[in-house]
Amino acid sequence: MTNAQAMLDTYPRTFNVDAQLLAATIDVIVDCASTCTQCADACLSERNAGELAKCIRLNLDCADVCTTTARVVSRQTDYDANVTRAVLDACIATCRSCGDECSQHADHMAHCDICSRACRRCEQACRDLLGAIS
To answer: Rounded to an integer, what is the distance from CA 44 to the centroid of its chain?
Structure first.
């Protein structure tokens, strides 16, 4: 059990989304943020780092958006579905862009392959949560 699930299990109020889905989504989002940060750092260490500026930028944007999304969806007190939908939509769009960019480098940079797959998982997890709160 992750801390996200453990924390939701102790929540003193009821909330309007499946706790297991929410916890799993939080875990995937947090993992994506970390993976994107690591991918950006790995790209900076490549010999052709200057040619990877777009990839690095999208990695960092995705990490920031994922971090914010995880924080927003983790808070359930006086929940506002409109805010949650907006951050999930932003996370989906950012993960799609970052995943697309990393997939262009995946055949010759393993870190981009790993990152692309993490972005795809995050994009899908956010879609699933978005569908559950709509």
So the answer is: 21
Q: Write down the pLDDT at residue 78.
A: 85
Q: Which of 129, 130, 125 is nearest to 29 (CA)?
A: 125
Q: Which long-range contacts (CB under 8 A, 24 or more apart) does 6-12 make?
A: 7/74, 8/76, 11/76
Among residues 28, 33, 27, 18, which one has the least CA distance to residue 122?
A: 28
Residue 13 has pLDDT above 90, yes or no: no
Do 33 and 81 meet the contact criterion of CB atoms below 8 Å apart?
no
Burial 47-84 (b: 16+ CB within 10 A, else e): eeeeebeebbebbbbbbebbbebbebbbebeeeeeeeb
Domains of the chain (ranges; CATH) run 17-133 (1.20.1270.360)
If you write DSSP's letter for every residue of 98-127 in order, what string do you get? HHHHHHTTTTT-HHHHHHHHHHHHHHHHHH
Per-residue model confidence (pLDDT) at position 1: 63
Q: 53-84 pLDDT, tens per residue?
A: 999 999 999 999 999 999 999 998 888 899 99
